[in-house]
Amino acid sequence: MITELYAYLTNLPRWHIFAIFLIGYLIYYLIEVVKRPILAVSNGPFKKYLRKNIPILEMKFWPTFWCFESRAQTVFASIIRSNMMPNIDYRREVLTLKDGGEVALDWLETDCDSESPLIIILPGLTGESQAEYIKCLVMAANRTGIRTVVFNNRGLGGIELKTPRLYCASNSEDLSEVISHVKKLNPHVRIGATGISMGGLILGNYLANYSDEAKAILTAAKIISVPWDVNKGSDSIEQPYLNSMLGRHLAGSLCRTVRKYDILRNEEFDWDMDVVLQSKTIKEFDSHFTSKHFGYKDVHSYYAQATLHNKLHKIKVPLLCLSAADDPFQPLDAIPIKAAEKSSHVAILITARGGHIGFLEGWWPANKDQYMGRLFSQFFSAALFDSNNEFYRTSQLMMELNLQTSTSVPTTPISRSSSPIRKKSIPF
């Protein structure tokens, strides 16, 4: 019998081999890849509202069958969206900040009512308003009748750098000015905010550090693929070989950004621009430039200030977060699941797959109705239109719960929120 089996295997027709491989691949996909996302949030009014009003939360996430590996999702999402989504004809506003610096605000209001809700969108590390993932969200909002304005950081989006200052993950001063400006222009409109990747860090730090101001202006917020623990995220993106290739690409983008501006070359600065431009990783760039640029002792001090996983208890605006368990920029054990389960205002939706700003689904991912965009539009449509004031009443209950539990929040929550989470405890 063994001889016959050996003879069969050695003479196996090619279509048999293909069929066996395809069946095995399909079984693996259905068992290990297709999962219902986890919603980490306290058992309170926010969780009840989300379960009732956001249908996508109850559905399994079906990653693209031929492209579910984390790095593949990350890379192909960018390639596919770039080729399928045309540039958007924004209305540009150049805003002069208090220190004389300028930023570009790109508005899309086409086919929207002048008093319709508005979402402020913050791109990632070197992203701007024509980045493919930004256009995905902008168009998703536009289809639901919500206006958007993309906040391009200093030096990005085609705006010259007027002062010797760029931007960083820990500093939300520019965002505070932008949000206040947008509110002045739209005093009677519900406003939301979204940050992607590093934009999520800037927004998250704004929500935590300007909590009362944020609560007074913003109705709801959302962050996508945020590197919750910047130190762990930096270590993860430097892992060989595929992760480090992504990291090198982003480091190169940062170097190209600073290379354009002679205003950043001066003997009085603490950094050596020639050394900065030789940076091969994001951490090297932040060590040679960003940390010095913003007055930190070293890169570790900068990352400690930028990190978000230990600040959830400070946030007072209803915040929905989307993270993938396989994000190469952020390991699973750094996602603050336990902290979210104790938070009145923060909910984290964790998919088993999705990579970094990927979340591709379907046999051929289209530029419409992608998972990331559907979650985005469902959440903000419910929160910002809020025709029966259900979200408003939920927000009031959330604040009451926050006030009731605030005295029991530990003064040093870092050890609790950042405790390692064993992967086997997550059903992925």
From TrEMBL:
GO molecular function list: acetylesterase activity; monoacylglycerol lipase activity
InterPro entries given in the database record: AB_hydrolase_1, AB_hydrolase_4_sf, AB_hydrolase_fold, ABHD4
Keyword match Transmembrane helix: yes
Gene3D superfamilies per UniProt: alpha/beta hydrolase
Keyword Disulfide bond (UniProt): no
Residues of the AB hydrolase-1 domain: 117-362
Protein name: AB hydrolase-1 domain-containing protein
Organism name: Aedes aegypti
